Amino acid sequence: MPEKVHFELVSPERLLVAEDVDMVVVPGTEGDFGVLAGHAPVMAAVRPGVLEIHDEGSEIRRIFLAGGFAEVTPSRCTVLAEESVPVTDLDRGQLESRLKNAREDLEDAKTDADRHRAEVAIQLFEEMLRAVA
Asked: Which of 33, 35, 111, 125 is deepest in the core (most CB within 10 A)?
């Protein structure tokens, strides 16, 4: 039996996933990285993107993360997510509408802070749309 890595996905509200899996693919800010048992210790920032949970005999579970941090040790991977949504729960029409609104907010922005918030929202919704493509 191949070695497993203990994976935990934690949101600000609660522990979402806690189980032993074959591999986790994390959307890091420096690029996606896979975590298997025996991985070198690392701390990494998580960018908006899709986290994949791989386990033998199961369909790959895909969860969209809005960002956060990952801590990896040889036996475990813990992801502290700002926000997480199963990719299957994302609605393309709703995301397109939210993206349109964010682009309008950018056009109407009067301050640097407003522009920055709109740009961050646009990047997030574009990444969410890529996840459901």
From this structure: 35
